[in-house]
Amino acid sequence: MRVFSKLICALVMVAGFAGEVAAKPAIYTCNIPGERQSSLIQPQVILSYDDQTKQVFVSDAVILSMLGKPLAGKMISDNALRVVFGWTLKNVVNAEGKTATLQFKGSYFKADAKFLISLMPLGYSNSFQNRGSCSVK
């Protein structure tokens, strides 16, 4: 009987660990209302972040129209105040036919669910920034 009890305890423990391993990534649905500084900053950005694997995926209308799927990003920092994500969109052609690489950074502020997104076209002197908020599931 003791062996059976130990086996049950072991299975319960393994199931508990398996549940932790199979945890779902956090989904940040971020809305940037109103007028934006650049049309390349979309009104909605969705980020998926798996804390265990550290994988980040980003999706918005521009990414989906260019790539047809979410873009891999990275978690830059995660502390008590905020989590910061980064992603780079390459080979974006503007209205004048010039190609640029766009570097994005999104900061989610944990205390008030605010979101700050910045965009820097590499090789150019300008940059863009907008604010919004996120819901996290």
What does this molecule look like?
The structure is a single chain. The chain is an alpha+beta fold. Helix content is 20%, strand content 47%. An eight-stranded antiparallel barrel has the order 1-2-3-4-5-6-7-8. It is globular, with a radius of gyration of 20 Å. The protein starts with a helix and ends with a strand.
Give a concise summary:
This protein is α+β, with helices and mostly antiparallel strands. Helix content is 20%, strand content 47%. The protein has an eight-stranded antiparallel barrel with strand order 1-2-3-4-5-6-7-8.
Explain the layout of strands and helices.
Blueprint: H1 2-21, E1 26-31, E2 44-49, E3 56-59, H2 61-67, E4 71-78, E5 82-93, E6 99-109, E7 114-121, E8 128-136
Antiparallel strand pairs: 1-2, 1-8, 2-3, 3-4, 4-5, 5-6, 6-7, 7-8
Descriptors:
alpha+beta; 2 helices; 137 residues; disordered N terminus
